[in-house]
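In this supplementary section we document a worked example of the pipeline. Step one takes a protein sequence of length 122 as its only input; no multiple sequence alignment statistics are reported here. Step two produces a three-dimensional model, which step three serialises into structure tokens for compact storage. The input and output of this example are shown verbatim.
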Amino acid sequence: MIIHITSRAAWQQAQTEGSYRADSLTSEGFIHCSTPQQVVRVANTIYRGQPGLVLLCIDPARLTALLRYEPPVQTDDPLAAELFPHLYGPLNLDAVVQVLDFPAEEDGSFQLPADVATGVLA
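The serialised model returned by step three reads:
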């Protein structure tokens, strides 16, 4: 499973349009994703304190666009030694197996939802 962090509003718009397109697909050519082990660090680095987020839990076997594991785009990124899943095209909705609310804690940090941490998804 791979995970993409987005706003609930963006996910709802994708359902209306029939596919999901993050802004990065236009600006960088791909949609940023994470593994379950990476997603909290990414959230705490980029989305700290942001409300209204959801996690799109994606089955890579169902993707219609190309998926590559690559280092972060920014070379000064503290996570630069890791490879991250990048989706080179729109996310087809049937590849999303679950959508989980991803609220920030009181201090603005994020915690991995129990369903992801245990590997038990609906």
